[in-house]
């Protein structure tokens, strides 16, 4: 079935069956591999993308439920909060293995878009559900705090 998507600022038509997770359309049909498959049950956050600016788990978002929403993947991030997060991630040297990082970044951008100066508790609450096998949580929190500082400057 032909489906039209708004992805990273462009409109695309893809052939996908109803019930296909958005994750597989992004990775297999659109060839954008920054969005990762982690658990398949929306528990780890590796597959996080933005749907109209809000972080969602693409492994449990079905293609027919996207409608006219704007989908943004890690490859399409370009907002001021996204630039601050990317700079902070480098400054704080967050990444170890890197597998979870696109989902972590997508969630962090979602947080800072809705709350530019979150407390540590707000960061912990918002980022809950984004798993990191390397246990880089303290550096992730530090990078989010640093991104908030960058945005304030």
Automatic annotation (TrEMBL):
<protein>
    <submittedName>
        <fullName>(2Fe-2S)-binding protein</fullName>
    </submittedName>
</protein>
<dbReference type="InterPro" id="IPR036010">
    <property type="entry name" value="2Fe-2S_ferredoxin-like_sf"/>
</dbReference>
<dbReference type="InterPro" id="IPR006058">
    <property type="entry name" value="2Fe2S_fd_BS"/>
</dbReference>
<dbReference type="InterPro" id="IPR036884">
    <property type="entry name" value="2Fe-2S-bd_dom_sf"/>
</dbReference>
<dbReference type="InterPro" id="IPR012675">
    <property type="entry name" value="Beta-grasp_dom_sf"/>
</dbReference>
<feature type="domain" description="2Fe-2S ferredoxin-type">
    <location>
        <begin position="1"/>
        <end position="77"/>
    </location>
</feature>
<dbReference type="InterPro" id="IPR002888">
    <property type="entry name" value="2Fe-2S-bd"/>
</dbReference>
<keyword id="KW-0560">Oxidoreductase</keyword>
<dbReference type="InterPro" id="IPR001041">
    <property type="entry name" value="2Fe-2S_ferredoxin-type"/>
</dbReference>
<keyword id="KW-0479">Metal-binding</keyword>
<keyword id="KW-0001">2Fe-2S</keyword>
<keyword id="KW-0408">Iron</keyword>
<dbReference type="Pfam" id="PF01799">
    <property type="entry name" value="Fer2_2"/>
</dbReference>
<dbReference type="Pfam" id="PF00111">
    <property type="entry name" value="Fer2"/>
</dbReference>
<dbReference type="InterPro" id="IPR051452">
    <property type="entry name" value="Diverse_Oxidoreductases"/>
</dbReference>
<keyword id="KW-0411">Iron-sulfur</keyword>
